[in-house]
Known about the structure:
The protein is mainly beta. The chain is built from 5 helices and 25 strands. It binds 2-acetamido-2-deoxy-beta-D-glucopyranose (NAG) (5 copies).
Amino acid sequence: xxxxxxxGAAVVSVASAAVLDLKISIQNTYSVVHVALGTPPxxxxxxxxxxxxxxxxxxxxxxxxxxxxxxxFNRTAYNVSASRTGQEYPNIPGSIDYTxxxxxxxxxxxxxxxxxxxxxxxxxxxxxxxxxxxxADGFLGLASSSIAFPNTTSFFENxxxxxxxxxxxxxxxxxxxxxxxxxxxxxxxxxxxxxxxREAQYAHGKVKYVDLEVPFQVYKTPFQGLTIxxxxxxxxxxxxxxxxxxxxTGSATIYVPQDYVEEIYSATPWTFAAISTGYRPLCSDFxxxxxxxxTLGATxxxxxxxxxxxxLAIPGYxxxxxxxxxxxxxxxxxxxxxxxxxxxxxxVVDFGSSNPEHYxxxxxxxxxxxEYLPKVQK
Length: 378
Ligand SMILES: *[C@@H]1O[C@H](CO)[C@@H](O)[C@H](O)[C@H]1NC(C)=O
Ligand SMILES: *[C@@H]1O[C@H](CO)[C@@H](O)[C@H](O)[C@H]1NC(C)=O
Ligand SMILES: *[C@@H]1O[C@H](CO)[C@@H](O)[C@H](O)[C@H]1NC(C)=O
Ligand SMILES: *[C@@H]1O[C@H](CO)[C@@H](O)[C@H](O)[C@H]1NC(C)=O
Ligand SMILES: *[C@@H]1O[C@H](CO)[C@@H](O)[C@H](O)[C@H]1NC(C)=O
């Protein structure tokens, strides 16, 4: 994608491809980016999500009954009649079932514009949605096209297939903003980079990579072990089981198997018995006295990543003195590392090739430089 032209002793790069940086803002606790659709371009606010694959936008024909909006934010619906380049396909319907909501609609195609770069993008125009609290017009799914809405190609795979990605990778710095009850939409400085990655700016030390599993659907790698060290109570919990770890920016917390949630909590300042009967952890118990390490990746090529208790605090459980429990449980042997984990790292997803037939996917995480760590803004 990048042609090098040698002029005398200097090497000048003529880039036909691009690196696209999308700013990440926080609207009422949701992390969003902006993508324009149509001609003339109309900007849409989208929740970016590595745990799903579809770009969808509420359609202008969707009534307040079918697409209720109690988010407190106005939405900009997609209006195909207002775009010279848009097309909708009522004969190609589809629906998507998320953990937190459901949408259905039809295939659409139009010009997408980000950072002065335009390309044709397929997406879903939504005519029914239960995401009534979503302070955005839709989702920007970043996982595999193989599990996307019918006839759509996920946003970044589409960018690669249009030869617009300088490198077959994207990078994520979620930003330093943390939502609170007092300030649910804090200033944020996150960046989602397509076609390159910005670890030189954000990361402290090297990005440590692990290979992702095939077939590629979501960003999934083998689980190798969980350690919780607690220097106050002198405990060192270590456990492993057969499962996978999924990196999902669309989940707020860390999901662990139901079978292990009780012993995991017993290594923290709380007990599962208390948490499950509504006990609200004090944010002041999220300290550097305890830490959580996860070992991931294929056997023989695994890597260990660590966060301290203070890095897992999500204020706003009724009030800002109380924080949400960092672990949820689910009926699966897999672990989901959600936003509360991922926000502490610079994340790189490297596809190895822009051609789906030659993908060699890996995901890497590097700790953030201290000035980029998320913190509550006073
Ligand atoms: C939403 O739009 C309405 C009508 O244009 C406007 O009165 C209102 O202030 C907007 N609300 C927000 C939160 O921007
Ligand atoms: C969404 O909610 C806002 C604020 O309550 C309201 O102004 C707006 O009309 C609603 N609907 C849409 C489609 O934005
Ligand atoms: C969609 O755009 C058309 C053409 O500009 C306009 O007539 C129509 O009112 C718009 N629909 C909505 C729901 O905004
Ligand atoms: C949708 O996908 C099907 C199956 O791959 C294909 O036959 C059809 O032509 C596609 N339609 C559009 C409008 O892209
Ligand atoms: C240590 O254990 C005590 C008693 O179980 C508990 O109250 C306290 O929160 C624990 N402290 C830490 C840092 O885990």
